[in-house]
Automatic annotation (TrEMBL):
Residues 15-102 form the Rhodanese domain. Keywords: Transferase. InterPro entries: GlpE_sulfurtransferase, Rhodanese-like_dom, Rhodanese-like_dom_sf. This is Rhodanese-related sulfurtransferase. It comes from the Bacteria. It comes from Pseudonocardia sediminis. PROSITE patterns: RHODANESE_3. GO terms for molecular function: transferase activity. PANTHER family: FAD-DEPENDENT OXIDOREDUCTASE, PYRIDINE NUCLEOTIDE-DISULPHIDE OXIDOREDUCTASE.
């Protein structure tokens, strides 16, 4: 496995608006708050649901802080799927003032 330093990554500050994002956090984290337009596929379910990976090129992968998404990007690139880790994850996303939403209208938070 390649070292995490070799995983394609981009900080939130350099992400273009409306990039295709895959959120790999667990369901309770997603429910608490996520980026608008992101797709949800928990890291724990990834291997069994590879057919659901969006065909975006590249696909930006996000988690809470960047650790889990980095491992997912490493796995996806080994499968030939072009993916980029969102450094700093949803914590940096929210801190940068990017929008965070919920599906049920509650006030969003990053947990």
């Amino acid at each position: 496995m390649a070292p995490m330093s070799e995983v394609p990554s981009l900080p939130v500050s350099q992400l273009p608006a409306d990039v295709p994002m895959l959120d790999v956090r667990e369901t309770d984290e997603w429910t608490a708050g996520h980026a608008p337009g992101a797709r949800h596929l928990p890291m724990s379910e990834l291997a069994g649901r590879l057919s659901e990976i969006p065909a975006d090129d590249p696909l930006y992968v996000v988690c809470r802080s960047g650790g889990r998404s980095g491992r997912v990007v490493q796995y996806l690139t080994q499968q030939g799927i072009p993916a980029v880790n969102v450094d700093g994850g949803m914590q940096d996303w929210a801190a940068a003032g990017r929008p965070v939403v919920t599906d049920d209208g509650r006030a969003p938070q990053i947990i």
